[in-house]
Write a structure and sequence with these properties.
3 helices, single chain, about 20% helix, globular
């Protein structure tokens, strides 16, 4: 795994209208998977009871399109499991949907934009296909 960009940011996990929790989220971008970004969360925040036994456990990682993150900072976007939308006050909301439930996270949009900018330095937008290894991708898909 070749991590080109890694950035730790703070997010607010919205638990209810009155409650939230701060957590550290690690954003990753890999040159060998140039179309995707990764968000890694401490396992204790997982909705999956099997993954959430306590601090020090492995992280839970969500993988989705880099373009989805970029578009979601300017307008509501997303289909399926990941939805992203801008909010007032330079914030962005990321909604993660799983069979176990829905997690709603609030990020500082500037931090997400900085991460995207750094990912574009590693692999410029529109150049992603020059970095794809079709044989490796097919092997992972079938494997």
């Amino acid at each position: 795994m070749s991590v080109a960009v890694e950035q730790v940011v703070q997010a607010r996990l919205i638990l209810s209208a009155q409650r939230s929790a701060l957590l550290r989220v690690t954003l990753r971008y890999r040159v060998d998977d140039p179309l995707a970004v990764r968000m890694a969360f401490p396992a204790e925040y997982s909705l999956d009871a099997e993954s959430s036994s306590g601090p020090g456990d492995p992280e839970v990682e969500w993988v989705f399109a880099r373009q989805l993150l970029a578009a979601g900072l300017d307008q509501p976007t997303g289909e399926g499991d990941v939805h992203i939308r801008p909010t007032l006050g330079r914030r962005a909301m990321v909604e993660l949907r799983a069979a176990e439930g829905v997690a709603l996270l609030q990020f500082d949009a500037g931090q997400l934009r900085r991460f995207l900018w750094r990912s574009h330095l590693a692999v410029p937008e529109g150049q992603e296909f020059n970095h794809l290894d079709a044989d490796r991708a097919l092997a992972e898909l079938l494997g």
